[in-house]
Design goal:
- This protein is of the alpha+beta class.
- It has helices at about 1-5, 15-20, 75-85, 90-105, 120-130; strands spanning about 35, 45-50, 55-60.
- It has a three-stranded antiparallel beta sheet with strand order 1-2-3, with helices on both faces.
- Strand 1 and strand 2 (about 45-50) form a beta hairpin.
- Helix 3 (about 75-85) packs antiparallel against helix 4.
- It is globular, with a radius of gyration of 16 Å.
């Protein structure tokens, strides 16, 4: 069943879990699929599935534990940051780097609030990497 494929029950290898999802018997398969796996401070794994499986691993910069105030909203911030860069048609690495940055900014404050000013400097840094 789909739940077993997603959770990878009985499968220890994450790559195999992703391949199981991609080979699932669905009526119409998407032309491409992006799967992003986060595990706290471990590197972010990204699987891009189109004609072939591509994997990207992006390290998460360390953050002093004293700076972490509240983890509520970290995942939503990560996804928002990823999508924000993705719709600008930047690289998957840039999407992940910005997603990490937004999540790390979110956990350094109490509650889920947006900064008064957009992170222009960080966006310019990402643009220069393209």
């Amino acid at each position: 069943n789909l739940r077993a494929m997603i959770t990878g029950e009985g499968v220890d290898n994450l790559d195999m879990k992703i391949e199981n999802i991609c080979e699932s018997p669905v009526k119409s398969k998407p032309k491409s699929l992006i799967v992003v796996v986060t595990e706290g401070c471990q590197p972010v794994q990204c699987y891009s599935i189109g004609d072939r499986l591509k994997t990207i691993s992006v390290p998460v910069p360390s953050l002093d534990k004293d700076l972490v105030k509240d983890t509520i909203g970290a995942g939503d911030s990560f996804i928002s940051g990823f999508i924000y860069i993705y719709i600008q048609e930047k690289s998957l690495r840039a999407c992940i780097e910005y997603a990490i940055w937004t999540a790390q900014k979110m956990i350094q404050q109490v509650g889920v609030t947006l900064p008064n000013h957009p992170p222009e400097r960080h966006l310019k840094d990402l643009a220069s990497k393209q």
